[in-house]
Write a sequence for this structure.
């Protein structure tokens, strides 16, 4: 076996040195009656060539997405991944290394995490950012648990159109702790401010709001924050489309207490939904309640500036059941992806790209409405995602777009299982769609 | 080394934007003033070349698995086969959207379904969920499944048993899943104290979280008795898969009575650690627990694959989307590369490796337990305290010889574990590599006696030396902006900044 270098002869030699006759002598602690007594029933080993053929054949059972443009988002957005991201990440020093517990041998990962923390803090206008949670949904769930620890209150409010898969994740994380979850419905696609004020009472630990929200709508975080803080609750802002922070004010500017932001749009492919990555940002006064790994700057004995994992007394390997979270392995490689991506985009690039995304989305929205086959559902501001109701029905739209090599938008009625959204579609655009792609989509749907 | 924020110059660009930016549509028509910024947030101003050089240089201050032995105990730092990376980069897989119509992603669903079949056979359970993003995330999923099982039966058990030798994630997970953690002591042989377990296991206890072989590298030879005690009181047995690399084809956790089996694909199944992740932590269960698995589940009707909702008894969702797909794909590829003989050989070789290292080093580094071990062994530096040398110093000295230190100060439960180092030499390390490691370890033991300052001042040859962790925690500088705000108080010299 080419991944196992020692030969049978060498293994025999090692067994002799150990002082046993056969390998089985080393297994004396395993009771015979629980051993299978047979070989595993799995296929015989494939050669590298046969394996490649097998998996290539499986991949062809997917559509050839390289030939398709996409109108689908809803928490996963197809953006361009610049070549330096994938080629730099393919350096073995990044992808084969372990968690940077030994700083003398891990400054590459540690400095990259520190740089990413800086990027994320600046984008969200927050003071501190944990660079790696699994995804936006789990980061939002950790934020909710954190708010409960900080406030010692036992109710979480989900306001407006929070992504249903985020909402379900938050509920799963809260369920064992007897936390009440209250929903404040949206009005015309945005948080219903009056209801929010009415339902955010003194017993609320935190209000979770997503912006841009599940329907793409941009929330008025200033107004929401004053309502939330008026009830002495914390404001948690979830962001599923990280790129929006290139153009939208950082939630910190609206005095958000915690921000859970998915960063899959920063240098990662879709990969059928994972691994994403997310940052979890907070005000500095809450940093000792944060979940996950954080890197700090210090010096070594020679006086050099160096980076280490710090505030470790929150983590599971030290605090065990008293830890702020059980998180250990995270999505660290994707932090470096985000760091490389944001470094390439830079100050102007990210701003331009975010503007391009929202302008393109508005172009498509207008083009589709102009066909006469679509109706606006809400009159709300949106970033790069929007809802329209199809007069021809959602299935017809899906079919025609697939015929035209376009990945169709999300069929909200089917996804939410709610007839109120029958034939309503959630369209997303990114910089990958040019004007002629969108004209082509509109033409295909205008018949 | 200088930060990326300290490089470049105003006006530099590193990204190509389309020329048509839809400037016919004003941004003010899209985003209301209260929500938008009118000048960009300050990030970096560097070119693609600057970025390439920065991150290439930075990578050289990292140690990867391909640089040499990385014998971290309980981490299973085995070779990451290149073919796995090749197949995981197939365009039809990487560009698949999780919400794309089912008929467009049949290949991705088939990978998930096929991996489930293989993993079920390998560990002896009935169904897996591929959702968990990491080992600890899998633990949480597994314990929530146990919780839901009892809820469904109308039982509310409040305690979870966790051995003192367990990884920190076990008690942290049980607490996160709402359980009161009760610690079970290890006996003098390093395994679960069955008498104490019998005492602790009661009608209010949901079960036991067990790692087998455990974190001391020892198979629990009383696993059958443990199974009867836990099940006898109606509890469930949870298997932590951190150390599964000692068991492939040798013993299946499902056959030893475990109800919930956790895997770390980034350990046993060869996928890379990525400097901390992403890995994947699938959870397999026996038939009676299948209804509680999280959504979604992949099903096959004989013609097509589907992503199905797990039903009303499910614990719900544990993340937004379905899985860490490329990690699954790489594990699937590895299993197919190995076949049944290869899997057995992997575990057998890792066990031989660990026992070989133990037999060669037990004279110099008195082990916590002098027994045959599984795929890892626990040595100690107890005998060097009199020279003022600690395990930490030995670990740092190893770096001078170009070796990544083993896991240190774990396990740390008294009185059996003191000044520990846990060495795990997986199957991908050859006898020559182990012999070189053994020789260096013996040399260091000699140095500890004759010139201990070589150790206490180590490392000497790494890009940076020992770090001031106390100041890092006391005065947290967590962003470049924190550093800028404290600039006057920091005394880094310019020439010191690059290493």
């Amino acid at each position: 076996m080419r991944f196992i270098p020692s030969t049978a002869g060498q293994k025999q030699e090692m067994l002799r040195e150990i002082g046993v006759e056969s390998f089985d002598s080393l297994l004396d602690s395993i009771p015979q009656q629980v051993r299978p007594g047979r070989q595993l029933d799995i296929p015989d080993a494939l050669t590298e060539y046969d394996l490649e053929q097998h998996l290539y054949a499986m991949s062809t059972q997917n559509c050839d997405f390289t030939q398709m443009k996409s109108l689908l988002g809803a928490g996963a957005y197809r953006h361009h991944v610049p070549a330096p991201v994938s080629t730099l990440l393919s350096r073995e020093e990044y992808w084969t290394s372990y968690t940077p517990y030994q700083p003398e041998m891990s400054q590459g990962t540690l400095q990259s995490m520190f740089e990413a923390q800086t990027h994320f803090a600046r984008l969200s206008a927050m003071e501190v950012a944990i660079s790696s949670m699994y995804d936006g949904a789990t980061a939002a769930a950790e934020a909710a648990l954190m708010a409960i620890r900080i406030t010692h209150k036992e109710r979480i409010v989900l306001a407006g159109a929070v992504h249903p898969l985020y909402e379900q994740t938050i509920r799963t994380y809260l369920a064992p702790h007897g936390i009440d979850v209250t929903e404040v419905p949206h009005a015309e696609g945005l948080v219903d401010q009056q209801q929010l004020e009415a339902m955010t009472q003194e017993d609320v630990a935190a209000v979770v709001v997503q912006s841009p929200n599940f329907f793409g709508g941009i929330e008025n975080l200033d107004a929401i924050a004053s309502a939330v803080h008026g009830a002495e609750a914390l404001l948690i802002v979830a962001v599923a489309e990280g790129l929006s922070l290139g153009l939208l004010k950082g939630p910190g500017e609206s005095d958000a207490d915690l921000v859970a932001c998915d960063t899959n749009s920063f240098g990662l492919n879709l990969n059928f939904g994972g691994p994403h990555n997310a940052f979890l940002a907070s005000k500095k006064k809450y940093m000792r309640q944060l979940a996950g790994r954080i890197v700090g700057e210090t010096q070594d004995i020679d006086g050099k500036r160096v980076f280490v994992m710090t505030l470790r007394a929150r983590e599971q390997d030290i605090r065990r059941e008293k830890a702020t979270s059980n998180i250990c392995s995270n999505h660290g490689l994707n932090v470096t992806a985000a760091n490389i991506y944001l470094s390439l985009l830079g100050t102007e690039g990210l701003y331009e790209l975010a503007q391009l995304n929202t302008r393109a989305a508005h172009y498509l929205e207008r083009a589709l409405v102009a066909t006469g086959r679509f109706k606006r559902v809400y009159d709300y501001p949106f970033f790069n995602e929007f809802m329209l109701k199809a007069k021809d029905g959602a299935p017809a739209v899906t079919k025609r777009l697939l015929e035209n090599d376009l990945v169709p938008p999300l069929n909200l009625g089917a996804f939410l299982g709610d007839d109120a959204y029958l034939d309503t579609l959630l369209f997303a655009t990114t910089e990958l769609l040019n004007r002629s792609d969108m004209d082509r989509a509109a033409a295909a749907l205008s018949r | 080394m200088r930060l990326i924020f300290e490089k470049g110059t105003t006006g530099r660009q590193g990204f190509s934007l389309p020329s048509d930016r839809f400037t016919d549509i004003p941004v003010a028509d899209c985003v209301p003033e209260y929500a938008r910024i009118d000048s960009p947030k300050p990030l970096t101003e560097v070119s693609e070349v600057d970025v390439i050089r920065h991150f290439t240089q930075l990578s050289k201050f990292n140690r990867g698995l391909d640089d040499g032995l990385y014998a971290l105990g309980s981490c299973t730092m085995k070779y990451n086969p290149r073919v796995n990376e090749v197949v995981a980069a197939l365009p039809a897989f990487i560009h698949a959207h999780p919400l794309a119509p089912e008929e467009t992603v049949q290949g991705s669903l088939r990978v998930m379904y096929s991996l489930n079949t293989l993993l079920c056979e390998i560990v002896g359970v009935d169904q897996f969920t591929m959702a968990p993003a990491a080992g600890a995330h899998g633990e949480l999923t597994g314990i929530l499944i146990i919780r839901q099982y009892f809820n469904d039966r109308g039982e509310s058990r409040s305690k979870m048993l966790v051995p003192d030798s367990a990884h920190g994630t076990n008690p942290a997970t049980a607490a996160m899943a709402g359980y009161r953690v009760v610690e079970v002591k290890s006996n003098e042989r390093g395994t679960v104290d069955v008498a104490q377990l019998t005492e602790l296991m009661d009608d209010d206890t949901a079960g036991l979280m067990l790692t087998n072989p455990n974190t001391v590298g020892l198979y629990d030879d009383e696993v059958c008795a443990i199974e009867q005690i836990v099940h006898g009181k109606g509890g469930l047995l949870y298997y932590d898969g951190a150390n599964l690399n000692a068991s492939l084809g040798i013993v299946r956790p499902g056959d030893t009575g475990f109800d919930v089996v956790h895997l770390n694909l980034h350990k046993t199944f060869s996928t890379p650690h990525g400097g901390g992740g992403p890995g994947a932590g699938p959870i397999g269960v026996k038939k009676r627990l299948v209804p509680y698995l999280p959504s979604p589940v992949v099903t096959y009707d004989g013609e097509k694959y589907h992503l199905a909702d797990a039903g009303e008894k499910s614990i719900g969702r544990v993340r937004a989307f379905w899985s860490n797909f490329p990690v699954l794909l790489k594990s699937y590829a590895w299993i197919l590369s190995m076949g049944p003989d290869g899997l057995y050989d992997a575990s057998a070789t890792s066990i031989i490796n660990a026992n070989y290292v133990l037999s060669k080093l037990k004279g110099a580094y008195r082990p916590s337990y002098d027994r045959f071990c599984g795929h890892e062994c626990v040595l100690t530096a107890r005998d060097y305290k009199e020279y003022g040398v600690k395990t930490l110093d030995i670990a740092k000295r190893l770096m001078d010889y170009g070796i990544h230190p083993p896991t240190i100060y774990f396990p740390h439960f008294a009185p059996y574990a003191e000044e520990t180092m846990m060495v795990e030499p997986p199957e991908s390390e050859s006898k020559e590599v182990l012999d070189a490691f053994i020789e260096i370890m013996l040399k260091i033991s000699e140095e500890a006696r004759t010139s201990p300052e070589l150790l206490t001042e180590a490392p000497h040859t790494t890009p940076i030396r020992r770090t001031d962790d106390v100041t890092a925690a006391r005065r947290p500088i967590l962003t470049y902006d924190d550093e800028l705000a404290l600039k006057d108080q920091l005394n880094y010299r310019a020439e010191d900044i690059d290493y």
Summary: Chain B has a mean pLDDT of 96. Residues 4-57 of chain B form one domain.
